[in-house]
Specification:
The strands form three sheets. A two-stranded parallel ribbon has the order 1-4. Strands 2-3 form a two-stranded antiparallel ribbon. A two-stranded antiparallel ribbon has the order 5-6. It is mostly helical. The chain has ten helices and six strands. A hairpin with a 2-residue loop joins strand 5 and strand 6. The chain folds into two domains: 65 residues, 3-Layer(aba) Sandwich (Rossmann fold); 96 residues, Orthogonal Bundle (Helicase, Ruva Protein, domain 3).
């Protein structure tokens, strides 16, 4: 665990007990063993892949752990050009050895601090709260979003605004990132014979911008 980037490959093939062992590291950036607490390095990221839930030997991730992942991004299959380059190119593992850093650790820590300075208006906070509260009040979801999820939406929207070169978060930033941020946190309940295919999209459609 004492690395800046942890890749948990096929995380849902690990047992629930092994999955839960990541909770303290992901939330507190520390590890406790035999009563001794040790801080993890900064910055610290956990990136995980998972297999389709219907495959043999997979275990669903606990809701408490899912809530600690900022985003879930679906990669899908590579496009034709990328797959052709993969088939005809060098071994990907050999290319990894030639990767050069894009920034220093200090650069990344500074960017993380700068994100928190992107302006968020009271009206924007009202919008994020309205989205979160809708999931708690609606009978269409099994469980409402947690306060941690609301913070994740806000921080991701700030990051998106900063990457766009703006110093203020817009509602459009929230709508752009909300599917990746809350999609793995929301479960829709069956409505008759139908079920919401995209809970995050349903959320954006149902809650008006203040």
């Amino acid at each position: 665990m004492f690395s800046q980037v942890i890749l948990a490959d096929e995380i849902n093939r690990a047992s629930p007990k092994a999955q839960s062992a990541l909770l303290e590291a992901m939330e507190e950036h520390q590890v406790t063993a035999d009563g001794k607490t040790m801080k993890l390095p900064e910055p610290f990221f956990v990136i995980a892949t998972q297999n389709p839930s219907h495959q043999v030997g997979t275990f669903p991730l606990p809701e408490s752990q899912l809530d600690r992942f900022l985003m879930r991004i679906k990669l899908g299959y590579p496009d034709q050009a990328a797959e052709r380059a993969l088939l005809k190119g060098e071994d990907r593992r050999e290319l990894i050895a030639r990767i050069t850093p894009a920034m220093t650790v200090d650069d990344l820590l500074r960017l993380q601090k700068d994100v928190t300075q992107i302006f968020v208006s009271d009206a924007l906070v009202d919008y994020v709260q309205a989205l979160v509260n809708y999931t708690r009040d609606s009978a269409r979801f099994e469980m409402g979003l947690s306060p941690r999820a609301g913070l994740a939406v806000l921080r991701a929207a700030q990051s998106w605004a900063m990457m766009a070169g703006r110093r203020q978060v817009l509602p459009e930033d929230v709508q752009t990132i909300v599917s990746a941020v809350v999609g793995h946190r929301l479960r829709a309940v069956a409505n008759g014979d139908a079920k919401i295919l995209d809970p995050a999209l349903e959320l954006v459609r149902a809650v008006p911008i203040p």
